[in-house]
């Protein structure tokens, strides 16, 4: 029965293991999470729509419209002809630096954005005695978290978080999740009222009252809309322009999603929008849980078949515990066939099970 489990045990997912099985597993996961013909997660999501990728020398739309309708600090640019969006990346670790590089390569090409990309740096003193921020601005390289890669001269490192965010209407959050609660609290009333956020952060804020998704934390604490960008993305590989893909999860504003897609897309980084923030964020977060299970199996030298069983069971248990199985009908059906709970013929009926998105409502509120 287990050999019937195509998602994990017999597909190309495990046929390309190299010297780093963890990385291979991670990099194989787009098959699971980002492929419209295969993903149990995206079986609940609307069909992908492609957004044009900016090409060399190409310009974007002439003007960008401010996004949120909240009142508050808006930088004084609302409604002006020739308005240009300003992007700030909050975070400058491995992925934060790569995100800044991707965005900076695009703001140079898109007329609707200021060239400059500000990057907030959690200041550190290097062994040389120099401040990390100073070194980044002098060498155009994050020598600690992304050595050897030029970020783009239009990336400006800034150790003052309030200064870094104050003029930006597009905020990219990319720091380890455990720091986000504190960061958000420090940013209350400091960001523009019309700012749009996107979270690249994998993980959840787990409080005594229950888990809180990071996009929800940002939205609720800062009073701004927050999209997400998730994928099976190893920052160092994207930094050297190896092909990868990611998904932007957006709530209801397609125009915003298109702007994020334009900001991140390059010929080697393919980004597709899906109207589902929680689904995309959960995929990115749960993927790391699965990756841990895969790593444990590797460490115990138990083989790929065992890995297929354990990772699938891990995901099934998490979804089942949360009462979310109906949100992932393809995954649930295939798993239940594999463990003998359903007959193989059930696979042809899975698509009739409609995901019940309302199940997620409670879990997307922070307590
Ligand atoms: N690295 C990747 O390949 C990758 C890929 C996809 C998603 N992500 C996600 O991106 C997020 C950031 O990961 P990363 O790899 O850029 O981080 P990292 O581990 O490379 O860097 C850690 C960053 O946290 C900063 N930091 C340290 N203490 C801090 C504090 N008290 N407050 C605020 N910041 C502090 C450090 O200065 C550094 O910039 C994570 O949620 C991760 O899951 C990472
Ligand atoms: O291990 P993390 O949390 O830095 O994240 C790595 C990425 O999720 C790889 O896709």
Description:
The chain has helices at residues 6-10, 21-28, 30-33, 94-107, 132-139, 161-165, 180-187, 214-222, 235-239, 254-264, 277-299, 304-322, 329-338, and strands at residues 85-90, 113-120, 155-158, 170-173, 196-199, 204-207, 210-213, 225-230, 244-249, 269-274. It has 367 residues and is of the alpha/beta class. It has 2 domains: 2-45 and 283-364, no CATH class; 85-275, NAD(P)-binding Rossmann-like Domain (Rossmann fold, 3-Layer(aba) Sandwich). Strands 3-2-1-4-5-8-9-10 form an 8-stranded mixed beta sheet, sandwiched between helices. Helix 7 runs parallel beside helix 8 (214-222) and helix 11 runs antiparallel to helix 12 (304-322). The protein binds nicotinamide-adenine-dinucleotide and SN-glycerol-3-phosphate. Residues 91-96, 122, 124, 145, 174-177, 179, 200-203, 233-235 line the site of nicotinamide-adenine-dinucleotide.
């Amino acid at each position: 029965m287990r050999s019937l489990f195509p998602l994990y045990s017999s597909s190309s997912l495990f046929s390309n293991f190299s010297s780093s099985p963890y990385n291979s597993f991670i990099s194989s996961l787009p098959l699971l999470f980002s492929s419209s013909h295969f993903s149990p997660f995206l079986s609940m999501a609307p069909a992908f729509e492609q957004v044009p990728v900016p090409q060399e020398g190409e310009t974007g739309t002439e003007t960008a419209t401010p996004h949120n309708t909240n009142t508050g600090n808006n930088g004084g640019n609302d409604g002006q002809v020739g308005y240009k969006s300003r992007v700030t990346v909050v975070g400058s670790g491995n992925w934060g630096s790569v995100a800044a590089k991707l965005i900076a390569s695009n703001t140079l090409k898109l007329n609707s954005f200021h060239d400059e990309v500000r990057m907030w740096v959690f200041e550190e003193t290097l062994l040389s005695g120099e401040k990390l921020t100073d070194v980044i601005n002098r060498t155009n390289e994050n020598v600690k978290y992304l050595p050897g890669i030029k970020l783009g001269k239009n990336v400006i490192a800034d150790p003052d978080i309030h200064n870094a965010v104050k003029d930006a209407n597009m905020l990219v959050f990319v720091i380890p999740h455990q720091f986000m609660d504190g960061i958000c609290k420090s940013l209350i009333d400091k960001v523009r009222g019309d700012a749009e956020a996107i979270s690249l952060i994998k993980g959840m804020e787990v409080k005594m009252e229950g888990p809180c998704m990071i996009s929800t934390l940002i939205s609720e604490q800062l009073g701004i809309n927050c999209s997400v960008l998730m994928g099976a993305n190893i920052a160092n590989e994207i930094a050297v322009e190896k092909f990868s893909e990611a998904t932007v999860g957006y709530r209801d504003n397609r125009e915003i999603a298109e702007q994020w897609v334009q900001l991140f897309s390059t010929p080697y980084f393919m980004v597709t929008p899906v109207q589902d923030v929680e689904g995309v964020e959960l995929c990115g977060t749960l993927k790391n849980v699965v990756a841990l299970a895969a790593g444990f199996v590797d460490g115990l030298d138990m083989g790929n078949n065992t890995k297929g069983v354990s990772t699938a069971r891990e995901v099934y248990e998490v979804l089942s515990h949360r009462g979310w199985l109906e949100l992932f009908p393809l995954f649930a059906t295939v798993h239940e066939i594999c463990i003998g709970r359903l007959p193989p013929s059930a696979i042809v009926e899975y698509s009739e099970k409609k995901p019940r998105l309302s199940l997620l409502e409670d879990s997307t509120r922070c307590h």
